[in-house]
Specification:
Layout lengths: L8 H12 L17 E5 L5 E5 L5 E3 L4 H8 L5 H4 E5 L8 H5 L8 E3 L5 H5 L5 E5 L3 H10 L4 E4 L4 H14 L3 H22 L9 E2 L3 E5 L2 E6 L5 H8 L3 E2 L11 E3 L3
Parallel strand pairs: 3-4, 3-6, 4-5, 6-7, 8-11
Antiparallel strand pairs: 1-2, 9-10, 10-12
Helix pairs in contact: 7-8
């Protein structure tokens, strides 16, 4: 004879929780033992982030992950530490695949809509995100106990700050200063050639980003403070769109 015992909802929920507990560590960062060294990095949002030292397992995802990966690959040893990265496309492919023969080896390639749990499964020491991804992705990672460092990489000044942040994470601050000095010298070389131009000598320039939506062409302009606008100024031009779009991200515009 088979007897069926009534199970209260609370008891059933507890049983399910116990079944899930063994899998929970797989969604957490690698534990920072008390006897292991740590470091504190101040990110682009002014947050002090505690993480293992060295950070041997780095993950990155979310929007504009291309910019994050490009910057990280300026540091020796980046490939060995990058355990997870968002899908990258540059129109004609992924440049990093061409310079890193191990790009798809022992590494997770996240989808463009990756969530905190998928990133956590790579057991990162730290996750690097664009600051605009804080609410969408970063806060969920923080709830799982994973250190998150935010960078911007949108203006020359932000590049200097963020390269120093990456230098701290990679424990190669000398390399960060070398990169900053190199880019500053290249910028100065361009500005020396255009600094003496008068307003009447500077061409009026319109820079557009082309994309498609529902099969229709879309043209967008960058904000005044982003590096695209700054590059036009450095090259001796006058960006004609900046008064219409002082801040924010890429903004669609019509031909009017």
């Amino acid at each position: 004879m088979c007897f069926k015992l009534p199970i209260k909802p609370a008891v059933a929920a507890a049983a399910v929780l116990l079944l899930l507990l063994p899998a929970a560590p797989q969604l957490m960062a690698r534990p920072m033992a008390e006897d292991l060294p740590t470091m504190v990095v101040t990110d682009a949002l002014g947050r002090e982030v505690l993480m293992p030292r060295p950070a041997e397992r780095i993950a990155m995802g979310g929007r504009a992950v291309l910019m994050l990966a490009d910057a990280l690959y300026l540091f020796p040893g980046a490939s060995e530490r990058l355990v997870g990265v968002g899908h990258i496309t540059q129109g004609k492919g992924n440049f990093l695949e061409a310079i890193d023969p191990d790009y798809h080896t022992n590494r997770t390639i996240f989808s463009s809509t990756v969530g905190p749990e998928q990133i956590a499964a790579t057991r990162p020491d730290v996750v690097i995100l664009k600051s605009v991804m804080r609410q969408e992705l970063g806060e969920g990672l923080a709830q799982l106990g994973i250190p998150v460092v935010y960078v911007d990489l949108e203006t020359p000044q932000q590049y200097e700050r963020d390269l120093r942040i990456l230098g701290q994470i990679m424990q190669n601050e000398t390399r960060a200063e070398e990169l900053i000095a190199y880019f500053a010298e290249r910028r100065a070389a361009v500005e020396r050639r255009t600094a003496a131009l008068g307003e009447d000598q500077r061409p009026r320039v319109l820079l557009l980003y082309y994309s498609e939506s529902a099969g229709e062409p879309v043209f967008s302009i960058p904000p005044s403070r982003w590096i695209q606008s700054d590059l036009v100024r450095m090259a001796g031009g006058t960006p004609v769109w900046v008064d219409e779009h002082p801040g924010g991200g890429w903004a669609p515009v019509g031909f009017e």
